[in-house]
Amino acid sequence: MGSNLVLPEFEPIFGILVVKIEEMISAEIKNKYELVVGLEVHAQLLTQSKMYTADSTEFGNLPNTQISVITLGHPGTLPKVNRKAVEYAIKMGLACNSNITRTNIFARKNYFYPDLPKGYQITQDKGPICVGGEVPITLPDGTQKSIALTRIHMEEDAGKSMHLAGEVDTLVDFNRAGVPLIEIVSEPDIRSSDEAYAYLVEIKKLVRYLEICDGNMEEGSLRCDANISVRLRGAKEYGKKVEVKNMNSFRNVSRAIEHEFERQIELIEAGIEIISETRTFDATTGTTSGMRTKEDLNDYRYFPEPDLSPVIVSEEWLASIQESMPALPRELYNKFIREYGLPEYDAGVLTDSKEIALYFEELCGLIHNYKAASNWMMGPVKSYLNELTLHISDFPISPRRLAELIELIDEGKVSFSAASQKIYPILLEDKVKTPLEIAQSQNLIQESNEESIKPLVESVLAENSAKVAEYRSGKKGLMGMFMGQVMKKSQGKADPKVATKILTELLEN
Amino acid sequence: MEKFLSFDDIQKSLEIRETDCKAIVNYYLQNIQTKAHLNAFVEVYKESALEQAAKVDEKIASGKAGRLAGMVIGIKDVLVYKDHEFNASSKILKGFISQFTATAVQRLIDEDAIIIGRLNCDEFGMGSSNENSVHGKVLNAADESRVPGGSSGGSAVAVQANLCTVSLGTDTGGSVRQPAAFTGLVGIKPTYSRVSRWGLIAYASSFDTIGIFSRNIRDNALVMEIMAGPDNFDSTASRKPVPKYSELLHFDKRVKIAYLKETIESPALQKEIKENTLSILERLKEEGHEVEEVEFPLLKYVLPTYYILTTAEASSNLSRYDGVKYGFRSPNAHNLESMYKMTRSEGFGEEVKRRIMLGTFVLSASYYDAYFTKAQKVRRLIKEFTENLLNKYDYILLPTTPSTAFKFGEHSNDPVAMYLEDLFTVQASVSGVPALSLPNGKDQQGLPIGIQVMANSFKEAELYAFGSYLMELSNN
Amino acid sequence: MKIDLNTVKKIAHLARLEFDEEGAEKMMKDMTQILDWEEQLNEINTEGVEPLTTMSSEVNVLRADKMGEHLSHERALQNAPQKDSDYFRVPKVLE
């Protein structure tokens, strides 16, 4: 690529002149450096009630209608732990192969903000419920990698503060205050924006498979902060890390990382020290900026939460949670490749969502033509769902009926085109009729019996002896015409494969 | 002639129809008015108490009355009562109306006790003299130039001056026992977690307990029996069953009693209190009990341990008072930060601010290990020592306070001197064990002296029985 | 532990308190006195002693995942120092 000779633009910053190169910094310079990223993901848990109170966690209700005295931090109130939230956290740990902490205590994280009613968040500091673990990711080029986890712990969400342009005040809604969260902290193992993207895709998949979170970043049920630093390739020490917040989609996390990578390299190349700070991402410009308010590094003064008794995870409890674990995306992926002989691409698409994977599993329990099943899923089924933005659970064709349809094709009873263009659409509208019933009522059953087709072929050839001669002297293209005639004589019911076979036999002899 | 000096008197009177609940309430209301200058009550629930009385009278007539029918109770300004105002004696909660009732209070109401009003105290329970209250100080009825003790000063004086039968206070480091000693009453701090803290405005979460003031043991035991026990709203409340304390007061054993050398030999101990304590120990020996002196070299460290941990917990518990959701908000604020700072600086009193600052300091990153972790370790040592001692001995006996009631303003300029008033009471709070203060004579100025007994965790029954026995002994 | 005015300022900010000059001086003196007194704990050997983190004798006090009673909207906002029909209101953060 080479370096671009562009007139540098001088921008005074804090009295220091920094050369700001308009075009991307050169690939050569970039290659000197290694990107080091750790991601902190918060996932809102799909429990009925909040983490430490019995308020509803339902989304979208009128402001300040889902709160109790405990949520508001009224004097004299006390928290109580939601058993299900603990189980969900453990499930995530088991899915990531983490060590589950047996004796759990909670801690207070103290700071002041209007949407934090008690003036502290009840979280876990020392002794998180899950320690270590890993998340397998697949990159766009197919390579697989494992991102190690530092920890997963339980905590509660804050309320919502709204700073609106026309208002003189900040408006606070406490409905969300207290909703259960798990915080998933990765080791700084991520080395590119692609890896970060893949990691988030995998986390989303996992939480959805486990049914503990709906993993939607745009709606806020999944949130991500990034810790980004750079160092020279081969260096052992980590560079100064910068925290980036306010990225509300996987794509934006990717963009923020790319931007930070370049920004930090620019500074280092210019001999300027990286400041360890918190920066906010701006989606419109794709850049990060330091948060202007002069915030001393917040001292959260963590200490053990005295209002909660310890939570002990016994062997029995752990075993019962383990037993209730669903098949995980990675397990199904491997199974589809090894047991069903499917290519990696198919396995990837089919395990993208748990419901699709489970539908597919059911389908494969009914027929053995796994590849055909896969093709139907990735083709007609997926396009139908995408077109109508439907969920597979609303798909009008059950695995049983789809299996029957595929069998009809395999047995030669209907042609593929009849199946996909005539029968399939009817199956979508009519939830009761079987594929066989439709094939029969629509007169689509093919004739595959050689004995029945042979006479038809013979009569076609007899009626077109001149063309037969032309075929035999080299005009192989006439096969199409003969086929057409045979299909006409059979009212379209002749199995094209069988007809072709007989025609070929008779013509070549 | 003072009437209704015990619940037994009340019950007997009711039985022979000599009186009814309305009359009882009116009697107390009259006393409250006459003694208004003592400033024990912050608010008197005149109408609702009389309404409640009428209802309880009906229930008595139809034979459906609860076990506390006829009892009139005052509650400290930190125990919440639905749809009533509560301030924790602080400006920062002025106008605050509670949306629920404390479990302990509800259980008493469910047994037909009548709540006559809320009682003055030190702000957020922080103090040993009831001089730190937004409602003004409380006067000791034994000598009105002197403090009643704190933080539950109002609760103590209410019973002392016969303004109600029994009152509820809270004891975090001695705030029931010390005022009980200063006013000549029975005051108990139960085992930590014996009584639910749901509805108790938190000061130091791992120390706070709800205690009872009464004139005699039986009233105290009866109220405790009804209040105590598991509660779904408090995750730390003990799920152990509650014995019927009021039926277990009989005592005729020979027991082993320890007393701590360092308490008796403390240079801070007032001479008459020392003599009183020694004389009771002698008496017990004469009665055939084993009385032994034990060394407790950690005694002088109990108070600093207590203050590091309680200020830390308090600094966090009081963060919710920020002017956002309830209570006072400074009218001078112009942005978020100034709202927080002005609200809290104008809303909290001096002592509270001091403790918040200290607590914030010991929790701060650079000092956490040196102070907070250290104090947590010493707490374990003190707790283990006390529990081990109480495994070997049935009771530990010691004075409740180093001095009798002191004059107003005596410790105003010296926070540590004020803290030293709790010297003998904090051990039970740090260890979590129950402790009872009993009236044990008077000093030469006629001021009440208290004697304190500690028993092992969840042994309130043994404590009450022994207390009953001790009170008889000192009367003979 | 000798506390200086700078520390008083920092701690006050963490606790969202503010003091005038006189108040800060007094707080500095009081904190120094009390912390010195608290430092006596250093005289005790606590090597190998586990910090006490809970005073509760119970474990696994957990709640089933069910919805409980909410405060009515009116009651929820009842004590708010400043509010409108839907929200709690606080002054904005001004930079």
UniProtKB/TrEMBL annotation, chain A:
GO terms for molecular function: asparaginyl-tRNA synthase (glutamine-hydrolyzing) activity; ATP binding; glutaminyl-tRNA synthase (glutamine-hydrolyzing) activity; transferase activity. This is Aspartyl/glutamyl-tRNA(Asn/Gln) amidotransferase subunit B. InterPro entries: Asn/Gln-tRNA_amidoTrfase_suB/E, Asn/Gln-tRNA_Trfase_suB/E_cat, Asn/Gln_amidotransferase, Asn/Gln_tRNA_amidoTrase-B-like, GatB, GatB_C_1, GatB_Yqey_C_2, Gln-tRNA_amidoTrfase_suB_CS. It is an enzyme of class 6 (ligase). Coiled coil: none annotated. Keywords: ATP-binding, Ligase, Nucleotide-binding, Protein biosynthesis, Transferase. Residues 358-507 form the Asn/Gln amidotransferase domain.
From TrEMBL, chain B:
Its EC number is 6.3.5.7. SUPFAM superfamilies: Amidase signature (AS) enzymes. It holds the Pfam family Amidase. GO terms for biological process: translation. It catalyses: L-glutamyl-tRNA(Gln) + L-glutamine + ATP + H2O = L-glutaminyl-tRNA(Gln) + L-glutamate + ADP + phosphate + H(+). The active site is at K76 (charge relay system), S151 (charge relay system), S175 (acyl-ester intermediate). One of its GO terms (cellular component) is glutamyl-tRNA(Gln) amidotransferase complex. Residues 24-463 form the Amidase domain. One of its GO terms (molecular function) is transferase activity. Transmembrane segments: none annotated. It comes from the Bacteria. Keywords: ATP-binding, Ligase, Nucleotide-binding, Protein biosynthesis, Transferase. Allows the formation of correctly charged Gln-tRNA(Gln) through the transamidation of misacylated Glu-tRNA(Gln) in organisms which lack glutaminyl-tRNA synthetase. The reaction takes place in the presence of glutamine and ATP through an activated gamma-phospho-Glu-tRNA(Gln). PANTHER family: GLUTAMYL-TRNA(GLN) AMIDOTRANSFERASE SUBUNIT A, TRANSAMIDASE. HAMAP family: GatA (MF_00120). Belongs to the amidase family. GatA subfamily. Heterotrimer of A, B and C subunits. This is Glutamyl-tRNA(Gln) amidotransferase subunit A. The lineage of its organism: Bacteria, Pseudomonadati, Bacteroidota, Cytophagia, Cytophagales.
From TrEMBL, chain C:
One of its GO terms (molecular function) is glutaminyl-tRNA synthase (glutamine-hydrolyzing) activity. It catalyses: L-glutamyl-tRNA(Gln) + L-glutamine + ATP + H2O = L-glutaminyl-tRNA(Gln) + L-glutamate + ADP + phosphate + H(+); L-aspartyl-tRNA(Asn) + L-glutamine + ATP + H2O = L-asparaginyl-tRNA(Asn) + L-glutamate + ADP + phosphate + 2 H(+). The keyword Phosphoprotein does not apply. GO terms for biological process: glutaminyl-tRNAGln biosynthesis via transamidation; regulation of translational fidelity; translation. Keywords: ATP-binding, Ligase, Nucleotide-binding, Protein biosynthesis, Transferase. InterPro entries: Asp/Glu-ADT_sf_sub_c, GatC. Its EC number is 6.3.5.-. The keyword Protein biosynthesis applies. Heterotrimer of A, B and C subunits. NCBIfam families: gatC. Belongs to the GatC family. Allows the formation of correctly charged Asn-tRNA(Asn) or Gln-tRNA(Gln) through the transamidation of misacylated Asp-tRNA(Asn) or Glu-tRNA(Gln) in organisms which lack either or both of asparaginyl-tRNA or glutaminyl-tRNA synthetases. The reaction takes place in the presence of glutamine and ATP through an activated phospho-Asp-tRNA(Asn) or phospho-Glu-tRNA(Gln). This is Aspartyl/glutamyl-tRNA(Asn/Gln) amidotransferase subunit C. It comes from Cecembia rubra.
